[in-house]
Amino acid sequence: MKKNYYLTIMLLVFPFTLSAQNNSKFTFSNPDAPIEARVKDALSRMTLHEKIKILHAQSKFTSAGVPRLGIRQLNYGDGPHGVRAEVDWNSWNTAGWTNDSIVAFPSLTCLAATWNRDLSSRYGHAVSEEFAFRGKDILLGPGTTIARTPLNGRGFEYMGEDPYLAGEMALPYIIAAQKNGVACCLKHFALNNQETDRFSVNVNVGERALREIYLPAFKKCVQKGGLWTIMGSYNKWNNVYACQNDSLLNKILKQEWGFDGAVVSDWGGATDTWQVALGGLDIEMGTFTNGKTTDSSLGYNTYNLADPFETLIKEGKIPMSVLDDKVSRVLRTIFRTSMNKSKVVGSQCSEEHYATCLKIGEEGIVLLKNEKNILPLKKGTYRNILVVGDNAVRNMSEGGGSSELKTLKDVSPLEGLRAVYGDCVDFARGYYAGRPLYDNVEPLTADSLLFLKNEALEKAKKADLIIFIGGLNKNCRQDCENSDRMSYDLSYGQNDLIGELAKVQKNIIVVTYGGNAFATPWINSVKGMLHCWYLGSMSGEALANIISGKVCPSGKLPIIFAKRLSDYGFAHYGKRAYPGIDKQVYYDEGIFVGYRWFNTKGVKPQFPFGFGLSYTSFKYGKPTLSSKQISSDGTLTISLPVTNTGKVEGKEIVELFISDPVASEERPTKELKDFQKISLKPGETKNVCFTITPEHLQFWSTANHSFIVEPGIFKAYFCSNESDIRATAVFVVR
Ligand code: GLC
């Protein structure tokens, strides 16, 4: 009896021990095996249903692995500036963890404003360590959607209006994050340049604008960064949703660019089984939800890439090769991340991460005005400093939509200033913007706003310096997902308040936060202005270090600041150009986005693209060319000396713009094609060297449907900002 008992047990348990023992022998589970061999081996062992299950969500922020084979699931986390607080398994509620407070890093527009590729790498390294520590495999970011309009609610999550700068500043972040075994999921691909009607708007855009403005940053991150995943956007292109758009995902992304990773839908971005199956989507997330609040009782098996797709495969209506390509891409992502032996354990809220956060904030802050060198503020110069403004005390890491963050530490601007200037600093709120909200609820009554305003004006009478701290915030219709701004003006009566404060005390400095440009009608009434984007956990310290002169400002604008909204290119074409009519938007301004419109049409901005002042000054010397002419596929180098002619150490960003004045298609007056950021001590000179390649010269030919370089005379402009040309060089392309 006993013998039979043990024999039965053996027979029951044996297959599992076999699979468990063999498991260590499977190629796919060998972390040292080449990834493609692991993919091939895993694919050969998976059942049809197991293949289907890894193509879609199994919860709000995970997609399945293959438990039977010991293939791990994928864990996703928002947002590009830090790891979002844990969300419930199957609802949008936060899970209420007590150990998921993290470092909020500066917004990506702030990173772009540093024009510092090394800092982008440090950013990607640090933020991916926090993602890894929280057990995430896919970081849902960064974002390189181009800033076409300053009203886009998510502008703060992106890297400005220029495709070259956006691509250059996203690339090191991605490379560093993926080196830690955390996949980046670059977003939103593509043409998601507004939040108004984001789930339904169809973008009509010309071929040149698509290729020269909206795609290049994504292409660079795929081809030079080896991007592992990319997020399809909600909007349509050519009347097909981007998450299931064959032209965009199969023809351009996968076939033309050679993308070998997985396309992840935005949450709720997949809508049609056939289009999803054949349109290039690989992982379907968040279907039947609006990506923010609504949930669905429908099971994950009802997703397009679940039972409906399995049925089409079983019926032979879609070939197994289509399924296997998707599965291979998901397996490749798993072996690159959750089953990558080199994936770091990571860390959370480390000194190094806070130091990186501070550094990026300091280098991203842009000094826009400094009349009579009112800045830096030497301690003791002013005895009664009045800080006014809601953003002086507001936590600007909360709100804004899916990029919202729960921070362990968040130094407010007021705290930062008080840490340096002590009890010289008094505070009056001046205006109140309420809690970060998704619905557009007025935060305060007129009476209470008036009280705050009068209190500030009263206190201003006793101050010998005012620092106004305002701008945008993460409320709905400010810098917030799922809504665009309704106006180019600052909200909450800030413009009037600044104007009235300036009448009381002429020593006034305005500090603004926000991811977009805005009108500055008071600019001639104030002596100084700094724009800070969003600075994350070390906000107050970064600001105080710049204001006090501990750090010399070196940030420059990645977006142009127009005097008025109507000066922007899109604004010349009416509602059809933005926000569209009947869910159809037409990018009628074509390639003339941002400064490209202003410099070609001769419109003067309030602050030019690439503008930023310093506490020191720089002189550019004469350029030296390696040759006066090159072939259309050749290269040439141009170098020029740059000297710090001031009294303090500082960093200068040398911006190279190229002009192709005679071409077969209209081109902007000049376009950014390279930049270098250098640090110089007083009196120090360094040689800055650029290599001109065909990529610097090409444009998209609508005749050839490809990039071409046409022979002719080209001009290189070495600029401190787009409008401030410090040196030029002419060369001929034969
Ligand atoms: C949101 C956003 C996307 C985010 C995702 C998950 O709707 O558009 O950027 O990563 O859903 O929260």
How far is it from the N-terminal to the C-terminal residue, by CA? 94 Å
Q: Which small compounds were modeled alongside the protein?
A: alpha-D-glucopyranose
Major sheet: size, sense and barrel closure?
6 strands, mixed
Number of strands: 27
Count of helical segments? 19
Low-confidence stretches: 15-23
Characterize the overall form: globular
Mean pLDDT: 95
The strands making up the biggest β-sheet line up spatially as 1-2-3-4-6-9
CA-based gyration radius: 27 Å
Structural class: alpha/beta
In percent terms, what proportion of residues is strand? 15-25%
Helical proportion, percent range: 25-40%
Task: Chart the SSEs and their pairings.
Elements: H1 2-25, H2 35-45, H3 48-53, E1 62-63, E2 74-78, H4 108-114, H5 117-133, E3 138-140, H6 163-179, E4 183-189, E5 202-204, H7 207-214, H8 216-223, E6 229-232, E7 236-237, E8 240-241, H9 246-256, E9 262-264, H10 273-278, H11 307-314, H12 320-336, H13 351-364, E10 366-370, E11 385-388, H14 413-421, E12 425-428, H15 446-460, E13 465-471, H16 494-504, E14 508-513, E15 528-531, H17 539-547, E16 584-586, H18 595-601, E17 618-620, E18 624-625, E19 629-630, E20 636-644, E21 650-659, E22 671-680, E23 685-692, H19 694-697, E24 699-701, E25 706-708, E26 712-721, E27 724-733
Parallel strand pairs: 2-3, 3-4, 4-6, 5-7, 5-16, 6-9, 11-12, 11-13, 13-14, 14-15, 19-27
Antiparallel strand pairs: 1-2, 7-8, 10-15, 17-20, 18-20, 20-23, 21-22, 21-26, 24-25, 26-27
Helix pairs in contact: 2-12, 4-13, 5-6, 5-13, 6-8, 13-17, 14-17, 15-16
This protein binds alpha-D-glucopyranose.
